[in-house]
Design goal:
- It is built from 4 helices and no strands.
- By secondary structure, the chain is mostly helical.
Amino acid sequence: MHSFNGSLLRCAQLLESINEEIGRAASWLSLFMVLVTFAVVVLRYAFDLGWIAMQESITYMHAVLFLTGAAYTLRHQGHVRVDIFYHRFSMRTQAWVDLFGTLFLLMPVCLFIFFISWEYVAASWSLFEGSREAGGLDGVFLLKSMILVMAGLLVLQGVAILLRCKLLLGGYTDQLYESEDISEDGI
């Protein structure tokens, strides 16, 4: 049983590492957004120059940052939630709350987003939808695909949460939080 629990823990860590790496990579978009926004303002007001594609790139970066960063934020307990009682609960009770919240709230919402967005994204891909503006970016279909990526990454993180809850509720706490930047205050 110990090796099975160890396998579940490694699986949870693998899923979390995917979201960790994607989140860290996406975080650089915030710096690029600032730099491009600064360049747009300087070019427009100092040199009377502007490019639609450059302005649209800010919107693209913003969308990708938030859509790919949602699972990273969930991994680090960064989403807003009503925490009137949760922080006072024992780890075991927190695990039950996380288990039910993940099963009955997170997963259904993610699956709903994925399935309701599928046709929307597919229609965009069928047209290779681009910008409506002359000189804009031609990757609107790629941008819309990020909705599906967000739902998928959140499901991966949800599975990691469920695995950790199963381990904690099953009494397996050995190395559950060892050498990780997730505290024992949250799953």
